[in-house]
Structures are given as C-alpha cells and as structure tokens.
Design goal:
Strand order of the largest sheet: 5-4-3-2-1-12-13-14
Largest sheet: 8 strands, mixed
Number of helices: 8
Strand content: 15-25%
Helix content: 25-40%
Order of helices and strands: EHEHEEEHEEEEHEEHEHEHEH
Number of strands: 14
Oligomer: single chain
Radius of gyration: 18 Å
C-alpha cells in the first residue's frame, strides 16, 4: 500500500481495463484496519495491485483528519481521504484540507435539547473543525480508544466555543441502536444522525454523509458512482453503499449494512478487502 497509494491522487482516473472498477473506497476502522490499527501485508499488496491496474483508492472514514492523519502517514498514503463522515476532503500528500463542512451549533444545541427532553441527560463529546481540531470530551463520556488524543472539558457549554464537524452522544442506559433511533425521530429534521461504531452515535450537518464527501473526492479524480467499489462495516457506511456501484460489507459488519450490501466478505481481521480485490483482479 505504501507505494500504490502514492499515485492515487493523480493517475487513478484512467483505468487499464484489468480491474472492473476505477475507484476503491475503503472505510478504516473495522474494515481496512485490523483491531491493532494496522493493515495486513496481504491487503497492502492487493491495494497495490489494484492501483497498479489504474484504479484509485480513497480512504473514507468517520474520523476527522486529526485522528486519521497519523494512520495515513504511517501507510505512506498520498491520495485523497474523506474524513469526518464526509465533512472533510483531505489531500494526504500535501497535508491540506480541500473542503470542510461544519455543524450549525445552534441547530445542534436545539437537537440535543430535544433528545434530552425525550430520554434524559446525554454524555457528550465533539470534534472541532480543522487540520488540528481537538476532540472535546465531556464529563462521563466513555472513551473507546485511549490512544487517540482528546481534550477533557468540565462543562458541556465549552463544546460550543469553536466551529465543529460533529457532536458525539451517548446515553447511560440506551443501546446505540436505541439512541440513534430516538435521535432520528426527535431531531432528524435538524441534524444528520449516524452510528459509526460501538458507543459512537454522531450528530452531523443535515444532509452530510460519507456519500457526499466521496462524491466530491471522486469528482476531483474524474470518477463517478458507477466506477466505485466500496467496503465498510457500520451504518455510517449505508449512504456510501447506496451511492457506489457495488458495496461489500465485512463479516464483522453491523446487520443493517449486511442487509443492503451486494456481498459480504471476510472480517477485517481476516483480510476481507484483499479476498475481494484478489478475486476481481484474477477473474476473466
């Protein structure tokens, strides 16, 4: 992957015909990354072969750039990345943001008030906009990965002091699916709502999704939905699957994504991406 991704930002738009798609879009957590945040050698080699055949590879992740950049740098990734659930299109080779969409903080505060009126107090965190935007974590919010940097805050009002990409919500007793469903019901007209992983229910700018960010990135490469093969594992990948020509869910994926996927591959721990890419590279 180190060598192959260096060219995806420029030469990916011209397919050679050896691979049936011109664009491969991969989620990170639970999909491209194993649980230790590494990419297997087999998957690296499969992606290298795909890009050598003329296809582009674009990482499409719910993580904002500050939580994604170190992974891309370690991989030697030099192409475009869609971060923050579609809010950010990032040029990894030049380390710069090409587009960035922020959450209307007044609408988000109103949405939170409506949700809390329905289910009681929420545990909150938020991702600030920008290349170096901090992730703010309020009292009681359960951190899921201690290796990712956060800034603790004592008062939830501190969340609103600077532009945000998203707000994270948790509930003391409701499951993620239950919280997401209630949030859509009472606040879905104000903000976008998605579930990106265990304990990760997010409020986003209304209408924003991985599909909107991926379509912007693809357009920069002269590519479109019909050219795209997508891999994912969580409900936040649903719009991307709906947009792409072919959606592949990992074996470890959420049931909602498996239900609409065109196929299901092996898990992220078992080189599920490589399994599909190798098959497509060798089929007649």
């Amino acid at each position: 992957m180190t060598g192959s991704t260096g060219s995806t930002g420029s030469s990916g738009a011209t397919g050679s015909g050896a691979f049936p798609y011109k664009l491969v879009a991969t989620d990170l957590d639970g999909t491209l990354l194993r649980s230790d945040e590494t990419v297997s050698e087999r998957t690296r080699e499969a992606l290298a072969a795909v890009t050598a055949a003329g296809a582009a590879h674009i990482v499409v992740t719910g993580r904002a750039v500050p939580w994604t950049r170190h992974i891309l740098d370690d991989l030697g990734y030099r192409g475009l990345a869609v971060c923050g659930q579609g809010a950010q299109v990032y040029d990894a080779g030049e380390h710069r943001l090409l587009t960035s969409v922020t959450l209307d903080r007044q609408l988000a505060a109103l949405a939170l008030a409506k949700i809390e009126a329905e289910v009681g107090p929420l545990l909150l965190a938020a991702s600030r906009d920008g290349l170096d935007g901090a992730v703010l974590v309020g009292p009681g919010y359960r951190r899921l990965d201690g290796s990712l940097p956060v800034v603790p805050i004592k008062d939830a009002s501190d969340l609103w002091s600077a532009p945000l990409n998203k707000v994270y919500v948790q509930h003391p007793t409701l499951s993620d699916d239950e919280l997401a469903a209630v949030t859509v019901e009472v606040a879905g007209g104000l903000v976008g709502v998605t579930m990106a992983g265990a304990g990760i229910v997010e409020l986003l700018p209304l209408g924003l999704s991985k599909a909107t960010g991926l379509s912007l990135a693809a357009r920069r490469l002269g590519l479109k939905a019909a050219d795209t093969l997508a891999f994912g594992d969580m409900p936040n990948d649903l719009p991307m699957f709906a947009w792409a020509a072919h959606g592949v869910a990992m074996d470890n994926a959420h049931d909602d994504l498996k239900a609409i996927a065109d196929e299901v591959t092996s898990s992220n721990e078992e080189d599920g991406i490589a399994v599909v890419l190798e098959r497509l590279l060798t089929q007649p």
